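Give me the fold.
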Amino acid sequence: MNKHTRTKKDEKELMRATEATDSWHTVGSAKERKRHWKQVAARTIEGTRKRISISVNEEDLARLRAEAVRTGIPYQTIINSLIRRHVR
């Protein structure tokens, strides 16, 4: 089993575990959530950009990707948002 296959398997397991819980519930209307995440994305991508390369823990990346699937936001945008909140 190579590294990439193991990560995909871990992501699928994480997604299964996330979807299996009954503690998730919708907050607000779809229109409100869409407007909110558009604002988050706009704030995240404003300004000049600099491409970087980093190494990330595989489990953390799998969780970020699962969150991206759940929210419909690219995981890179989520990472940018986390960095931006941390440095501000």
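Helices lie at 3-20, 30-45, 58-71, 75-87.
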